Each structure stands twice: as C-alpha cells, then as structure tokens.
Amino acid sequence: MTQKEKLLEVKDLKTVFHTIRGRITAVDGVSFEVGGGEILGIVGESGCGKSVTSQSILRLYDEKKQVTYTGQINFKNTNLLELSERDMQSIRGNEIAMIFQDALSSLNPVFTIGEQIAEAIRVHNKGIKKKQAMERAVQLLELTGIPAPEERVHAYPHEMSGGMRQRAMIAMALACEPKLLIADEPTTALDVTIQAQIMELICELHDRLGMGVILITHDLGVVSQVCTRVVVMYLGQIIENGPVQDIFQRPLHPYTAGLIASIPTLETEKRKKLYMIKGSVPAMDKAAKGCRFYDRCERAMDRCQECPPPLVESENGHCAYCWNPNLEGATSLRERRAL
Ligand SMILES: Nc1ncnc2c1ncn2[C@@H]1O[C@H](COP(=O)(O)OP(=O)(O)O)[C@@H](O)[C@H]1O
Ligand SMILES: [Mg+2]
C-alpha cells in the first residue's frame, strides 16, 4: 500500500458520553485520514479529546451504557461503526493495535511478559504451538531492543523498568502485525533519553513493517521529528490539519502558532522564558458559541465569539478553521517572544 492510499478515514466522528450530569460531546465532528505508510500526529493540550478519538476508533467505550458514536470510521473500506462487537474484536489487536502511556495497567501482573505476548500471538494464529509462540515472543522482544530477550521473556511486568515495560507492550502490540498502530502518549511517563529511544523504535518499526501509525502526544517537538502529517485538536474539534512542514513553517491557526511558540528550545532554556498560551482549556460548555478558542486567542475579532469559524485552505491539503488566520505564514509569536 502506498502512502497515498487511505488506510483509515474518520468522517464527522462524534463521541457523546452519557453521564449523570448530562451529555458530553467529547469528540465533536472530527474528520481525518491516515495513509498506509504514514505517521499521523494528533496534538493538543490535555483534555482536547485526543484519547477519546483514539479509543473511539477501536470502539473501546461501552455503547450499551456509556457512549454513542456517530459518523464514519472507515478502515480498509469498512465502516467500523457498523460492525458487530464480535467483528470488532477481530479488528482490535489484529488489524489495529494500540499502545498507551501506562504499560503497567495494560499488562497483566500475574503472567510473565513472554506468556502475555505468546497468548496474543496464539489468539490471532490459532494453529500455532505454545513453544513456537514463545520463540516468536523472544523475537519480538529482540525487535524492540530489549537486552537478553530470552531471559526477559520470563520476567513479570513489575520486575521491569518503565522503559522496558513500554517496549514489552510494543512487542505485544506488534504480535499480530497490525496494519495500524495507535500510540497514545507512549512516552509521557518516561524520562527524556528513554522517550527518544522509544520514539526511535516506533519509527524504525514503522519503516520496517510499513504499518500506518497514529501518534497522539502533547509534545509538538516529537511530532516535528517523526510525523508526516499533523492534526491539531482543541476542545473536541480539529482546528488545523496539514503536512508537518507546512504546519511548522506556516501555522494558520493562532492556537497552532501558540503551541509551536511554546516548544522549549536551547535559547529559551538559557533565558528561562517560554511563551505560554494565555488561560487554560475551558470546560466544553463554557467555550464561546463561535470559535471555541475565542477567549484565549490573541487574534480574536468580534465575530469569532458568535459565528463558527470557516474552513481556510492553503497548499498541500493544509487547512484550518479560523476567522483570522495567519496567512502571511511567519510564526510571528516566536519573533514577538524574542523581543
Ligand atoms: N469516560 C468519560 N466519561 C465522560 N467524559 C469523558 C470521559 N472520558 C473523557 N471525557 C471527556 O472528554 C474530554 C477529553 O478527554 P481526553 O480525550 O482524555 O483528552 P486528551 O487525551 O486530549 O487529554 C475530557 O475533558 C472529558 O470531559
Ligand atoms: Mg489523553
């Protein structure tokens, strides 16, 4: 599959939670695509709906009690929202795998790493013998760069460091050779050197195995290094979408420009002054009727408060929803910060 071919197409996805305090539309009309060999970044501050978007793709919330999904999630031309729970189960782990921030809570404490990886292999390859599955588990651990994998395969999750556990979880996700890997803040809990190693591993596996990757992170620095395209979310909606270079060189939306200006650089570390977007993410029902970023926006105009922002398109499929986008393209906030 070439990079241009669609692997996943999310169309006008809405995820509504039914809570005792009423309905919360945590994902509100989100659309994006992921190509076969592509690494798509989803970024935005905490609470913007990144995790809900990724969990919705796999329909991980309980549709009987908790949540309603609308829109389309087309994976290899099948709308996942129309599948039965049973068919969904064969998609999860098999075709689409997911890794999380916290490996400890997704690994089972009472089984060794090897047993868990072998089990994942056996669920998806019914004929395979236990011994063969264990051998494959060792190979997968080796692929993720775990030292002495033939010994580590017998370790329990609590006997491993955070970085090693994360690698083990990646090995488990790869056990079924998924077409799409969703990585939700996979390195947030780790220290910086280990973070870089894990990111390198994900990129290397992406190159070698050719799977599509959705990388969810609040760290734009990581995105600039590894992603081909970026989706920027704010309060449950996409506000900008485009190729990584276009986004970083010519951000259209003031929110994106603010996120880029907030990335620490060597310079800012020296001066100890870092740009910050004013205010914080408001509750969903407290946001302005028009643009949800209105209260925090330095380029806001009167109509931004009342009217939903229009779609502005630039080159290479780069687009944003904004009444007053930065069309000159300079990251003016960076310059202002230097003054
Ligand atoms: N299980 C849930 N029940 C109700 N609301 C939820 C639930 N999970 C998330 N939300 C809502 O969705 C919003 C977005 O959450 P999330 O996707 O976890 O943000 P992010 O991953 O971008 O930090 C939260 O602020 C919360 O209001
Ligand atoms: Mg999250």
Automatic annotation (TrEMBL):
NCBIfam families cross-referenced by the UniProt entry: oligo_HPY (TIGR01727)
This protein's name: ABC transporter ATP-binding protein
Sections of the chain in a coiled coil: none
Keywords recorded for this protein, A-Z: ATP-binding, Cell membrane, Membrane, Nucleotide-binding, Transport
Pfam annotation, one family: ABC_tran
Subcellular location: Cell membrane
GO cellular component: plasma membrane
One Gene Ontology term from the biological process aspect of the record: peptide transport
Regions crossing the membrane: none
Superkingdom classification of source: Bacteria
